[in-house]
Amino acid sequence: MAPDLPPRRAFALLALLGRLPQGALSRAFGRLADLPVPRPLRPTVIGGFARMMRIDVAEAEKPLADYPSINAFFVRRLRPGLRSFPVDPTVAASPVDGIVGQLGRIEAGRLLQAKGRDYGCAHLLDDDDAAAGYEGGVFLTFYLSPRHYHRIHAPCPGTIGQARHVPGALLPVHAPAVAHVPDLFPRNERLICYLDAAAGALGRVAVVAVGAYNVGRISAAFDPEWNAPPGAGARVTNQPGARALTRSYSPPVPVAPGAEIMAFHLGSTVVLLFQPGVRLEPALAPGQELRLGQPVASAR
User: Fold this and answer.
1) Would you say 160 and 193 are in contact if contact means Cβ atoms under 8 Å apart?
2) Out of 123, 148, 150, 153, which one is annotated catalytic?
3) CA pair distance 176, 88, nearest whole angstrom
4) How high is the pLDDT of residue 30?
């Protein structure tokens, strides 16, 4: 993983990765990132990583010396009280720190990926029936660069009744890839969480965590069984031979607004889907930097 690349270098990397085993390379990078760093070396090693990625270490929950590995630092939590969420349950907030990609209405089952390029909602969710519920609704895409905080939170209060893991490629999701790779998000691995909002007018919100190159895995705070290490016999993301799997929860898992629901172990993209009856904040625009907890949508 590297900071955002110039377009020419990004295109060259994209062409190369299309010919390489992305999953194996990403798992290998994940294992390297999980290697323990001796405590005396942590300020130098992890501090150097933070400077290279332009990460604001002042926002981290702990001092650098308390993170045992690069991955532990990458999935760091924020200092308590650093972000806040709306108290109105009819307002949905940004689930991440990130940059707005595309946004708009879901029409004829299509979502905008980039100018002149779209993709299918059913393909993204890997579920025709689920996708039908979002026809006429709205969507919002967030890109998480290497410098961003990489935990994903509930955009509103509610319950999680279902989640789905869809294996796929692990292509980069930087701007050149988004602009030029057809169906990029549906092609990549996804972990999809369906959140039934406490305010019924917000409907069922789909939070889609999209994997990418050098994402060692996506963990699920709402279901610890998905997070077992490789070889432990439980379902995990970014594993060879994995098949799509849906899990249902009875009773549904309750989540408070801003509760952690998922985490990227080395970065990617989140797509939010809202059913009809929800409007996006009118000031939102592609390229806009958003903080966790900023209002992004509300019931009309």
Assistant:
1) yes
2) 153
3) 37
4) 53
Q: Where are the alpha helices (DSSP H) in 169-235?
A: 175-180, 184-187
E strands, the chain, are 91-93, 98-105, 110-114, 117-120, 138-143, 151-153, 158-166, 190-197, 204-210, 218-220, 245-255, 260-264, 269-274, 278-280, 289-290, 295-299
| Domain boundaries of the chain, sorted by first residue | 7-74, 91-299
Residues 6+ apart with CB under 8 A from 263: 75, 150, 151, 152, 218, 219, 221
Residue 242 near residue 170 (C-beta atoms within 8 A) = no
Whether 26 sits among the annotated catalytic residues: the reply is no
Those residues with Cβ within 8 angstroms of residue 110's Cβ, 6 or more apart along the chain or in another chain? 118, 119, 120, 121
Among 112, 78, 114, smallest CA distance to 97 is for: 78
pTM of structure: 0.87
Annotated active-site residue in 26, 94, 219, 268: 268
Assess whether 250 carries a catalytic annotation: no
- Give me 214's structure tokens: 């050098």
Annotated catalytic residue 127: no
How sure is the predictor about 16, in pLDDT bands with cuts at 50, 70 and 90?
very low
If one counts every other C-beta atom within 10 angstroms of the C-beta of residue 58, the result is: 7
pLDDT over 90, % of the chain: 65
